[in-house]
Amino acid sequence: MFLTSWNLLRSLVSGLTDPAFRKILFSALILLMSGTIAMNRIEQWSIVDSFYFSVIALTTVGFGDFTPQTDLGKIFTAFYVLGGIGVIVAFVNALGARRIERARLPGRKQRDHATVDETMH
Hints:
The chain is mostly helical. The protein has a domain at 30-105: Helix Hairpins (Orthogonal Bundle). It is built from five helices and no strands. It is elongated and about 55 Å long.
C-alpha cells in the first residue's frame, strides 16, 4: 500500500513538468474546491465533510453517509457529478499514463519474471 502511494505521488510530481497534465490537475483541484465550498455553504457541512463528499461523489464511490438534504444541494450535486466525472476520469487517466511512462523509462529495473530469471542464471 505504501509503495503504491509512493509511486503515485512520484508520478504526480513528475507530471508537474507537463503543461497538459498541469491543466488537468488544476481543473480537478478547482472542481474539488468549488464542490467543497458549495456544499459547505448549501448544506452547512464542515469543510472536511464537504471535501469528503466532493471526492466520494466525483469518484462515484457514493458511500451514502453524506447526502444533500436541501433541494438546492440535490440540484447542485446532480450537475456537479455530471460535469465533474469527466474531469476526474481525465485526471486519473493522466496520472496512470504518467505512472506507465515512468515505468518504461530507460535504465529502470524491469520487474518482469523473465528478466529476473535471466539475471539469476
